[in-house]
Amino acid sequence: MSASREKFATQVDSKILRAVRNLAEKEGRQIQALADEAFADLIEKRKKATPRAHVMGAYLASHEKYAALYKKLAK
Q: Could you tell me if residue 7 is inside a domain?
């Protein structure tokens, strides 16, 4: 983790913030530590959310072959 820190401001749903405060208190941690963990988890999750090349290839091939059917099903 980087020693460099930067302040920022945002708004959070009050129920979510209350739950995070309770979690921080229960775990004996600062909200800042939970925010760092949540951001890191989100970044890692989004990196893994990118489809693998062979999966995208199969999807595109399927879409080319069955485009008319997909359009009918969408209606």
A: no
